[in-house]
Amino acid sequence: MTEKERIELANLLYPNITNSVDYYEKRYPKRDLPEGAMVTRYAPSPTGSVHLGNLLSAFADMVYAKQSGGSFYLRIEDTDQKRMMEGGIENITSVLHDFDIIPNEGYSFGGKYDPYIQSQRTEIYQTYIKDLIIRGYAYPCFMTEEEIQNIREEQEINKTKIGIYGVYAVDRDLSLDEVKEKLANNEEYVIRLKSPGDANNEIEIVDCIKGKMKFPEHNVDTVLLKKDGTPTYHFAHAIDDHLMHTTHVIRGDEWVSSLPLHYQLFQLLGFEPVKYAHIAPITIKDQETGNIRKISKRKDPWFGVKYYDENGIPIEALHLYLATITNTNFEEWYLNHSDQSIDNFEFKFEKQAIGGTSFDEAKLVNLCKTYFSRKSGKEVYEETLNWAKKHDTDYAKLLEENKEDMIQFLGIEKDGPRPRKDISKYCEVKEEFSYAIDSLFKEENYKKYDGDKTYDTKLVEDYIDNYLDLEVDNDTWFNTVKEFAVKNGYAASPKDYKKNPEDYKGHVGDICEAIRVMITGRLKSPDLYSIMKILGKNKIKERIEMYKNVCNL
Length: 553
Ligand code: GLU
Known about the structure:
By secondary structure, the protein is mainly alpha-helical.
């Protein structure tokens, strides 16, 4: 076709598209940002629920943009209307809010480069398609599904590259009259790229994470606009990331194989290339097979982000965990700078694992424990209450009714150089502090402790009635327990006991253990004297009675 014919064709196909490419180039001007500022985007398709991998890429988008003084935006890629999940878009925005990964701009956040949802950008895509048709780089293709399937089968038999290219691209050179005839017959069509590439040529693309990669040049007439006039991912990616002035496309590495196509599209459209950073998937060692595999929706509870919310993993701890996956040197930095905010760490693409990072639950749990250990009793109380209001309303009510005591319990052993490290999730508070709320403390608590001993209630009662003073300091208290131990034939220390076990009934630790089990139902707890102080003598006595009942003493 001559240029004149191509113009006629473009107008015939898109009579309603009257804006020019220039119009959009002016409508979306370059961003006024300092040198080196990164513009990143989280571009999810609302086709399924958000998972850890999505969160990881959104987190990376956020930190790279933030630390470079750039912008991080949310773009909804809803071009696949058939696979849209009901409520999928709302789910994406609420997950970002819940996990504190807040874009600077984008869908539902506003911004100058709107609309940030692809279903509202059809006119823009069609304007650029019109331009490509006029310039001879795109054409309508009327091939039927059946024809394409036949070609595919033939290619599979011949073991040649799959796709519409070269001799297979039969509609590439239709004349204007032929196209008109097909249109008159109402034949359906897609718009394909008229790829000028030659697969014998090699191109080199540098990925920010994976480094230099070589590919054969793209030579397939890939579909750019579907039959319904909406774009494919590839075309929308080129147009949107160009017009929204993305500098770094951070995305899952399932897109690496599309790079030659994307590279060609940017060239043909005359766009400045974007930089790519392809993130490898999060992997895990399969329990059954022992093989390393991608984390999966079906097999791994921590795949979906719901897990983190429902179990009460603190957001800040999850951010720390995502940071350890984002940069391999983060963890070491954090160990030395754990009093600092993540914002003080400089993320670098070179420090991103190329081959994928395996999900490490122990690491996540440990980061969570560190997080909790640094929070005051009041902070842990408030955060747990917020979590419980959403996930365990009965417990939330009890927390509110027992506020003062609860803050004190949660604040035990927080001040020293090695603060308590027991809780890793909000959902554990109820169980770990099961003795803290009187109305929750039931007889079955005694059945949970893993010891098999029955303790001497008479001895403990004697101690509580005649020796326990709740007004002294911790050292004085412990000295009286020791004196009491010695008076009753127990060693004052485990060391003394070990030297001559036959001389003693046990040691002071055994007495403390007996008290602990009777008042908390547990073999381990934070500082015993602090617990006794908060409970007070009456409750301590009530619990001993309860213990006697359970043990039939
Ligand atoms: N919508 C694409 C997806 O969800 C986004 C890929 C990208 O970030 O470019 O896989």
